[in-house]
Amino acid sequence: MAEGRSLSEVRALVGASHGITDLAHKLHFYDQWAPNYDQDVAALQYCAPRLAVDCLTQALPGPPHTALILDVACGTGLVAAELQAQGFRQLHGVDGSPGMLDQAQARGLYQCLSLCTLGREPLPSAEGTFDAVLMVGALSDGQVPCSAIPELLRVTKSGGLVCLTTRTNPSNLRYKEALEATLDRLEQAGAWERLEARPVDRWELATSELEVGPGTSDSDGFISGIIYLYRKQAAAQAAGGRPGA
């Protein structure tokens, strides 16, 4: 691993990643970034993995070690590290970047890791497999399209949880609006119910002054984000069956 970058270098790098909207280009960028990813996002005080896992843990019934968890767009395994700290042991991960998966494999926290580019191909799991599915940090332009959200539901057990995050800084607001429209449509269709939408002021340090504005925590240079938590409804309800069926 290279010597740590300066904060200004990290901000420039992450700002560049936010600006890539072509998926193939984005995946190549992440492959190259993978060896230094953890130390770079730590420099930005990126806290989404910890906060998302905290949100999930508070809502998940039963002991953590019995729950089968899927970490979508798992990257280097930052979410897995937080899950392990909370007592979760049955962890599967998928990501579209081979370089990121190499780093995740080195952590030794996942029972199964798979190369999968969500939005271009289905998840490599059967319907109703997981007690909970998380996707942290991949919901933005050039990463996972909103159209892929139902695939997360497909692999979640009836009554299981889905935890999602996105940035709410100015450059991501258009994507967030489209994401929330997708989430709301699924709820209106009876596919899931929203348990929480938790705003977070201190998501990570802004990459530029342009990112510190409406919808951000501009007093300390942090951008904001949001965590969504949903529970998958029973199949009869999701299919339009009688309430309580």
Automatic annotation (TrEMBL):
Q: Name one Pfam family in it.
A: Methyltransf_25
Methyltransferase domain boundaries: 69-160
What Gene3D superfamilies does the annotation carry? Vaccinia Virus protein VP39
Highest taxon of source: Eukaryota
Among SUPFAM superfamilies, the record links this protein to: S-adenosyl-L-methionine-dependent methyltransferases
Q: Which GO terms describe its molecular function?
A: S-adenosylmethionine-dependent methyltransferase activity
Annotated InterPro entries: Methyltransf_25, SAM-dependent_MTases_sf
The name this protein carries in UniProt is: Methyltransferase domain-containing protein
